Amino acid sequence: MRIGEAAGTAGVHVQTLRYYERRGLLKRVLRRSSGYRDYNHEDIRVVRFIKRAQALGLSLDDATELLTLRRTSGPRERARRVAKARLDDLDRRIRDLKRMRSALAALVSSCDAGHDPHCPILEALETGPARARRHP
User: Fold this and answer.
1) What is this structure's pTM?
2) Does 132 score more than 60 pLDDT?
3) How far apart are CA 134 and CA 102, in angstroms?
4) What distance in Å separates the CA atoms of residue 81 and residue 12, rounded to the nearest whole number?
5) Distance CA 70, CA 38 (A)
């Protein structure tokens, strides 16, 4: 199938297929004498594999490693390590997001919506939360 059809079937943009080709994730697709590239169902499977990996938060490098393991029937332990590393990273990011949410919620609740000429939100952003004025 041609690149536009392949991209549509895989649910990606044409540029994504070209990028994956340049990165070596897809084999170099031979061009017909007409100049069109021909993609096959395995190419679509590879693209979908990568997109599913990314949907789980895996990086393109992680997906590349997992794809290599898929192609070579590599050890499951390596696949587990890649996934576990990403899981640990996601847990860290979730903790960071919770901390940010808590700090922002505290600032929002400390703001009395205009009754005081000093805004604790703006002060915290200007000077940092440790220096911001405390408002009852």
Assistant:
1) 0.73
2) no
3) 16
4) 28
5) 23
